[in-house]
Write a structure and sequence with these properties.
alpha/beta, six-stranded mixed beta sheet, four-stranded mixed beta sheet, globular, binds acetoacetyl-coenzyme A
């Protein structure tokens, strides 16, 4: 692949959008390659993913403006669908995804980070939905996910003004969970991923599914979703070992003794 790198180490996969000359802007080829990489994620050997951008300046500086500049209405809609389909695949992947935002996260960059489960960023990160300044709306989910992430009022303000915000403000409004010095970001992401990867994989996946699917429905339906996914964990080796270890007071064993059983 030309623009997307993928490596797996110690049960953690790292996807790197690798188009640094264009600040990792998302053109059709990047989206296509990302789609293929997501299809290739093997959930029997990967327990957590990290998504980041190549270079020290940019995570993703948005959809490719050059490619979009001459689109017709129909082509614009199709391009939006292409991005949305890939981002939805990322969002609904069974394993959790951490966005390690190492610089600009503008337009499609902010949008792809919001399709991840957890966002952490470097101190030089810049977030924004500058699309109205380009004569378009956010088109890869920004009008929907930003409002759900930071609240309607703040999302509307960011989107209508097109104003960029820095890392500390992103932290304050809840767009990211933590800010790190640039050189510490990937180590922090890997440490977080390793903690997640140590936990029972079926339970972690079911938690992701319960939270994501529960948010789309009313509370009565949401708790039923939780009940089913809670029940689904029982009779698994992880559940037997996890509870057995606790009852035997063998905390040292934890869940590390049952890697990938019943995945
Ligand atoms: N699309 C295409 N190319 C881009 C790009 C983008 N979104 N962002 C940066 N680049 C390219 C630049 O054209 C430039 O290429 P050349 O060297 O060939 O000229 C290269 O990356 C470096 O960029 P700059 O020279 O502009 O770097 P800078 O440090 O001066 O500025 C920046 C950085 C503020 C991020 C600036 O590049 C910028 O404003 N980029 C556009 C950001 C943007 O508007 N993103 C939203 C796109 S629309 C969208 O995403 C719609 C959607 O929701 C789907």
């Amino acid at each position: 692949m030309e623009f997307v790198l993928y490596e797996v180490k110690d049960y953690v996969g790292i996807i790197t959008i690798n188009r640094p000359k264009a600040l990792n802007a998302l053109n059709s080829q990047v989206l296509e390659e990302l789609d293929q990489v997501l299809d290739s994620v093997d959930s029997s050997t990967v327990r957590c993913l990290i998504l980041t951008g190549a270079g020290e300046k940019s995570f993703v500086a948005g959809a490719d403006i050059g490619e979009m500049s001459n689109l017709t209405k129909a082509e614009g809609e199709a391009f939006g669908k292409k991005g949305n389909d890939v981002f939805r695949k990322l969002e609904t992947l069974s394993v959790p995804v951490i966005a390690a935002i190492n610089g600009f996260a503008l337009g499609g960059g902010c949008e792809i980070s919001m399709s991840c489960d957890i966002r952490i960023c470097s101190d030089n990160a810049v977030f924004g939905q500058p699309e109205v300044g380009l004569g378009i709306t956010p088109g890869f989910g920004g009008t929907q996910r930003l409002a759900r992430t930071v609240g309607v009022g703040m999302a509307k303000q960011m989107i209508y003004t097109g104003r960029n915000i820095k890392a500390e403000e992103a932290l304050r409004i809840g767009l990211v969970n933590a800010v790190y010095p640039q050189e510490e970001l990937m180590a922090a992401a890997q440490k977080l991923a390793a903690v997640i990867a140590q936990n029972a994989p079926i339970a972690v996946r079911n938690c992701k599914k319960a939270i994501n699917e529960g948010l789309q429905v009313d509370m009565d339906q949401a708790v039923v979703i939780e009940e089913k996914l809670f029940g689904d964990c029982f009779e698994t080796e992880d559940q037997k070992a996890g509870m057995g270890n606790f009852l035997e007071k063998d905390k040292e064993k934890k869940l590390k003794v049952v890697p990938f059983k019943n995945c």
